[in-house]
Amino acid sequence: MNADLHPALAGSRSVGLDIGGTKTHGVVLDADGSVLAQVRLPTEPGADGVVATAHAVFESLRTETGLALDGRLGVGVPGLVDVGRGVLRHAVNLGVDGADLPLRDLLSELLGRPVAVENDVNAAALAASALTGADDVVYLSLGTGLAAGLVLDGRLRRGPHGAAGEIGHVPVDPAGEVCGCGQRGCLETFASGRALARAWPTTRGFPSTALFSAADAGDEKAVAVRDRYCWGVASAVRVLGLTIDPERIVVGGGVAEVGEPLRRGVVDQLARLGEGSPFLASLELGERLVMVPPGFPVSAVGAAIRGR
């Protein structure tokens, strides 16, 4: 899949910020859907730091483009978001834990323009829909945790409690380890970046890159760890296929930077899951699976689309 947005998602020039625990990534999306400019800065922790970093990234984008950038700003953030009020309710990785942070109003007052705030995985799902041109899309994020963003009939599905797409907390092994959510054997304990780092720790580079490189080199232990990880991702894809039945399942997040080797591994595990089930095999889940193009700022682009 290339990084061109579907023509239906073209529109006015817009700005999106993806505020993460380590960095804030800002993009300017041109009217034709191309990325006109992008800036990354380390995220300062805490409520004041998050706002200050967002301000700095936005001003850097204005300087780089020489444009006023006076339209609505879209912002994607991890954690629980009250979209209607533009409030970040809980985001431990940002140092925002406890009191609600009225992020929309703070940024709108500081920048002098309207702001739309969205959960980062939901924002990425909008970009996934734009990349595939499909109205029924699941974006599966393999980040520190495991979560999915849902676009159904062209609209984001958040759920009345904001829990739609919390695929990482579906238990699949009653004898598995305790998950951070308090349940046991959740998908997140098998198929997240945190789970991969625990299973294949490394002091150099990214654990995902080290694992897949070692497996490709024939390391038997690495092959076993890789296959178990890909089974976990395939299990998440199976749940999404059976409950949502999307046209496309787009995989992104830090682990997904591995690219094609990860996709092949997950497709192989999906085929194994379907060996004893003609019904499951008939769903052809592997053929619906695509990866976010390497280096594509999916959450920031999605935030820009949300801003529109």
TrEMBL record:
<protein>
    <submittedName>
        <fullName>ROK family protein</fullName>
    </submittedName>
</protein>
<comment type="similarity">
    <text>Belongs to the ROK (NagC/XylR) family.</text>
</comment>
<dbReference type="Pfam" id="PF00480">
    <property type="entry name" value="ROK"/>
</dbReference>
<dbReference type="InterPro" id="IPR043129">
    <property type="entry name" value="ATPase_NBD"/>
</dbReference>
<dbReference type="InterPro" id="IPR000600">
    <property type="entry name" value="ROK"/>
</dbReference>
